[in-house]
Design goal:
The protein has helices at residues 2-9, 23-26, 32-35, 37-67, 75-79, 82-108. By secondary structure, the protein is an all-alpha fold. Among the domains are: 32-72, no CATH class; 81-129, no CATH class. InterPro entries: DUF6766 (IPR046657). The chain crosses the membrane at residues 32-55. Keywords: Membrane, Transmembrane, Transmembrane helix. It holds the Pfam family DUF6766.
């Protein structure tokens, strides 16, 4: 349902890259922020999620240290802690693995009616629209 809505609203998959752009889109120079809005937004979400993870993990570590009577290290010191980086890389590894699996499987497998999938009858070597 969401895919159909995005397709109708002009998601990247709904436009033919070989199609001539309408005159309205050619006029004017888009701003830097708009031209890179997707990348900037994704980078902002990455930074926000890392900060939330950092502060949440540091707080949990402080609570654990307090239970055991150890002194608190503080947020900046925790940034250098191996536990934070182990947790982060473990999370990133699973995300990259799932993305890689989707990319590789989408070469060989199909989903009828999905704009992200190749047509069912298309050969594996076919790329693009």
């Amino acid at each position: 349902m969401l895919t159909a809505w995005l397709f109708q609203r002009g998601s990247a998959e709904s436009r033919d890259p070989d199609e001539e752009k309408p005159e309205k889109e050619r006029i004017g120079q888009p701003s830097f922020l708009y031209s890179h809005s997707l990348g900037l937004t994704l980078f902002g979400l990455f930074i926000a999620s890392f900060l939330l993870h950092w502060f949440g993990s540091a707080r949990a570590s402080e609570m654990d240290m307090a239970r055991h009577g150890a002194a608190s290290t503080g947020y900046l010191q925790y940034l250098l802690d191996a536990e934070l980086w182990f947790e982060s890389f473990q999370n990133w590894q699973s995300e990259f693995l799932s993305t890689a699996v989707l990319v590789v499987l989408s070469i060989f497998l199909r989903e009828k009616g999905s704009p992200e999938s190749k047509p069912v009858s298309a050969p594996d070597e076919q790329t693009g629209s």
